[in-house]
Amino acid sequence: MLQLDKADGVATVTMNRPDAMNAMSRALRAALDETFVALRDDDDIRAVVLTGAGERAFTAGLDLKELGVEGIGAANATTPNANPVLAIQQCGKPVIGAINGVAITGGFELALACDVLIASTNARFADTHARVGIAPGWGLSQKLSRLIGIYRAKELSLTGNFIDAQTALAWGLVNRVVAPDQLLAAAQKLAGEMATIPLDMLRFYKTLIDDGFDLPFGEAMQLEHRRSSARNSGVTADQVEKNRLEVLARGRKQ
Q: Model pTM?
C-alpha cells in the first residue's frame, strides 16, 4: 500500500495501489501520516520524494468507494491521519512531488502540498470537486489561484477539465517535465541536492518561505528580518568563510 525507500539522505515514498489509481483509502492516508511522522524524526533523512506506483496515476484522490459507504467527512478532516496534506506539512522537510500520472481532485490537493513538482509527460491535473459535488477542504481553492493565477484556477475548477504536463509547466504549476522513465531519477537528484544542506538550515529556510507566503508582502518582509536577524546573530565569520569556499568548489563542478 505504501512503499518507503531510503538512500543518501533521501526518502522515496510511493503510494502503491496502482489497480485503484493509488486512490487514498483510509488505510493509505493513515500510512502516509505514520510515514511522514517517522521521516520528520529521522535525522538521516533531509528530503523526501512522493510519487505513485505505475504510470496511470499519482493519485486519483480520495477512495470514492469508501466515501460512498462512510460519507464525505474525510474531505474536511483536520487530523493528519485522515488529511494527507496535513501529514505532509508536519514533516517539515522538503518534499518533491514526482507526478507520474493523473493527479485528480484530492490528488491534486496532495500534489499542491509538496514543495516542488516534477511531472512525467504522462501527468495530468484536474479539479473535479464541482463535478463530484464536494467542496474542497484540503486547500485547493486557495492554493491554486496563488500558484497559477485566479483566472486559470477558475478555468480549471469551474470546468473540471484536465491540463496536461506541458500546460502545467507553462502555467508554472510544475518545475519541469521529463520522460516517464526519467521521472524518479530527476526527482531523487533534486532531493539529493537539497539533502546536502544542513538539516536545521533546510527546516529554517523552508519554514521561512512558507510562513512568509501566507502573509501580505510587507508583513512577510518584517518576518524575514526578525527571523534572519535572530539566526544570523549566531553565525561566525569563520563559518561563513568555510561555507563560501564550499559554494565556490561546488560551482566549479556544476
A: 0.93
